[in-house]
TrEMBL record:
Coiled coil: none
One Pfam family per UniProt: Smoa_sbd
Annotated protein name in UniProt: Styrene monooxygenase StyA putative substrate binding domain-containing protein
Styrene monooxygenase StyA putative substrate binding domain residues: 143-246
Length: 403
């Protein structure tokens, strides 16, 4: 047996592979693409990663240019008057194009002796089953066909059956806020997020438009690349005026491959599949849970669950169905608050959440706490789901036990 088989060279698969390598567990990574193909591909996402992703502990810190480390953020909710505040965070958020980061992680893994099999095509259930004959356990972190075939939707944990936002993500020049995150809400229409990202063009602005389906932001998701910058500039003026103030005459999409348009249906899938060869497959990352990127937790949750899975694997087998379900429950302890919080953000805010945001406009401690929620999803859900916790914060209660 050749240890653990990992399907997918996204952030979850690579984090798992690197962590198992650290723990002395043999692993083989099955990647659809080689590093050169990853570097030359289309923009896969716009991701801001938090301190709890633990890349430092993996010995795999890359592209930490000061220009893409965000120690502050501004939030603006359109209204008359708008609701706005500026907040700070102790450990900066970090944004880097995954076309740079994932190949760097792959190089780290192979450079330390790890085995990578480049498959050249998406994995399906039959291939996962065939590969499992070489391994004690298969962990699936990516692959559209294999995910759909192996891990059915969990209806009890998946309240949505269609996309709640239509997405347009792109890399732009001519929009400079420095190392600051900008979160702009246009009630009933959607959200516009801007972050400084390290890319193959240097540090530029990554902009994600989260459009409510059928609303005025949605047409951007259907525009050809040549028209997107002009369309976005017009939408910023109407729906994110603070961001529009920073647009200059050179505002442009940097390239056709620097644009991603589409939609995501939030879903939680069953985490364990029994393969015909007698072994199991465990789903981690996007293969298990796909959250809307509105709260910026997808890659962060994938990394967190990869660490949990790695520690469970290193503790030893047998890697049977009981092992898979026990590991999934440990991962769900981390994933449940992220999923609850993200799903709540896709709906109109509750009255106590509005009260918290209003308090943040006049109190810096509350503003900083709100920003800190993005780095502490367990506490974020404890706040968002609890009028009592919000009242405690607003009343000036002592430091939360979560911080």
């Amino acid at each position: 047996m050749a240890g653990i088989g990992i399907v997918g060279a996204g952030i979850s698969g690579l984090t798992l592979a690197l962590r198992l390598q650290q723990l002395g567990v043999e692993a083989t990574l099955y990647s659809e693409q080689d590093p050169a193909s990853l570097r030359s591909g289309r923009l896969p996402n716009t991701v801001s990663r938090m301190g709890h992703t633990l890349e430092r502990e993996l010995g795999s810190e890359h592209y930490r240019d000061p220009g893409c480390l965000m120690g502050s953020a501004e939030l603006s909710i359109k209204g008359d008057p708008p609701l706005e505040f500026l907040a700070r965070i102790a450990e900066p958020f970090h944004a880097v194009d995954f076309r740079l980061l994932l190949p760097a992680y792959l190089d780290d893994f192979t450079g330390r002796g790890g085995e990578v099999v480049v498959t050249g095509a998406p994995a399906d259930a039959a291939r996962v089953d065939r590969w499992s004959r070489r391994h004690e356990l298969m962990v699936v972190t990516a692959g559209r066909r294999s995910v759909a075939e192996l891990f059915p939707r969990d209806p009890a944990r998946s309240p949505f059956d269609r996309p709640q936002r239509v997405l347009t993500a792109g890399l732009y020049g001519g929009l400079d806020l420095g190392p600051m995150f900008s979160y702009n809400v246009s009630p009933g229409c959607g959200e516009i997020l801007r972050m400084p990202m390290m890319t193959r063009h240097g540090v530029v602005s990554g902009v994600l438009v989260e459009a409510v389906p059928g609303g005025p932001l949605e047409p951007l998701s259907r525009m050809p690349a040549a028209e997107v910058a002009g369309g976005l500039a017009g939408l910023l003026a109407e729906h994110a005026p603070r961001l529009a103030e920073r647009v200059d005459g050179g505002f442009e999409l940097l390239g056709e491959d620097d644009l991603l348009q589409g939609a995501i249906t939030p879903v939680v899938r069953e985490a364990v599949a029994e393969l015909s060869g007698g072994r199991i497959a465990l789903a981690v990352g996007d293969a298990w849970i796909t959250n809307d990127p509105l709260t910026g937790q997808g890659a962060n949750l994938g990394s967190a669950c990869a660490w949990i899975a790695a520690d469970a694997i290193a503790a030893g087998g047998p890697y049977d169905a009981a092992f898979g379900h026990a590991t999934a429950e440990r991962m769900w302890e981390a994933a449940a608050p992220v999923t609850g919080w993200t799903n709540a953000f896709l709906r109109p805010p509750a009255a106590h959440v509005v009260a918290l945001l209003l308090a943040a406009t006049t109190r810096q401690d509350v503003a900083d706490l709100v920003l800190g929620l993005f780095a502490n999803p367990a506490y974020a859900w404890a706040v968002i789901s609890s009028p009592e916790e919000v009242a405690r914060i607003i009343d000036g209660g002592g430091p939360s036990p979560y911080f």
